[in-house]
Amino acid sequence: MSSVNLGSWVQTCSMFNHAGRSRPPTYSMFINPFGRKPISLLFPRRRRRSISSSSYISISAVLTKEERTEGGTPEEEIQTTFDFKAYMLQKGNSVNQALDRSVSLKDPQKIHEAMRYSLLAGGKRVRPVLCIAACELVGGEESKAMPAACGVEMIHTMSLIHDDLPCMDNDDLRRGKPTNHKVFGEDVAVLAGDALLAFAFEHIATATIGVPPARIIRAIGELARSIGSEGLVAGQVVDIGSTGLTDVGLEQLEFIHVHKTAALLEGSVVLGAILGGGTDDEVEKLRKFARCIGLLFQVVDDILDVTKSSQELGKTAGKDLVADKVTYPKLLGIDKSREFAQQLNKEAKDQLSVFDPEKAAPLIALANYIAYRHN
Q1: What is the pLDDT of residues 116-129, one digit of tens each?
Q2: Cis? peptide before 362, omega within 30° of 0
Q3: pTM for the full model?
Q4: CA separation for the pair 337, 330 (Å, rounded)
Q5: Structural domains of the chain, ranges and CATH numbers in brackets
Q6: Which residues, listed in sequence order, are joined to residue 265 by a DSSP beta bridge?
Q7: CA 167, CA 238: separation in Å to the nearest integer?
Q8: Range from 20-34, 256-270, 293-307, 348-362 carrying the lowest mean pLDDT
Q9: pLDDT > 70: what percent of the chain?
Q10: What is the DSSP secondary structure assignment for residue 79, as one 8-state letter?
């Protein structure tokens, strides 16, 4: 993968370097969207093992020939020995079964129907699989991470339900189906999201087995921080305030997406590492990996929004353009946005070089999947 010089876009600072290894970050410390502090999307260079070395397992997401050409995927990554499709199918099925069991139909019937409608509507299940993969990477078992994996998917679903509301993005289509408020009404949709948010924490607290209580508490605190007023909500509110403005730059755009999108992806990975028994050093390495793929996810999302159809995406295409929202393609152009995505993918995988390559294979493949996905 070719290296990208981001100097023409942004200047260097220490967005990813946190003092203290075990202390969860305060998201607002990364970037002041209204200030003039420079930002950096790269980590300091250091000597490290190369994941793509011939001494390591060769893995990649399942890419089409076209994607391999456009994305510049290294030849050694194309020759796969890790079955990513089988892995995602197996983990996705496990997550879907656990979600189905966790939110059952009961009284009041309507609210539980609304919760299940969006929660079980499909989706890529990237966040719960990231949680499980991180747990297993540091030596934990899937069962220890599954309640947290379900919890982050419940919260993600809540964010989608609320995001689609008329007062927010006003969208009619999600995961190829009518949005929750189109089926159940705005009032029930709001309450379904609220119920999923509350139940996510209850489920993690009561269903996690075989993990020391201190680690469960730490995980719950991490998750709450990632979605609160210094996490996902911060990104949402700055995004709302930026709509239609003509002077939004890269710094503010990155603030939005580090918080609105990357924070929950980061939380998913960090929760898995904590519950799996990871050391502080391992947790922080995985935190940096997750922040890169979180931003990568949004860059790719922005690209897909202007290059794919609604049918291909399973949601309304071009809605950011119609809403006059600032996006990476709008600021950088399509080609530079794709180069930026490649650089983020490389930086993410570099963070995994300290781990056993076979155990890290699922996370490396997930990073590639996020980089080269079609929807």
Answers
A1: 999 999 888 999 99
A2: no
A3: 0.79
A4: 9
A5: 81-370 (1.10.600.10)
A6: none
A7: 15
A8: 20-34
A9: 74
A10: S
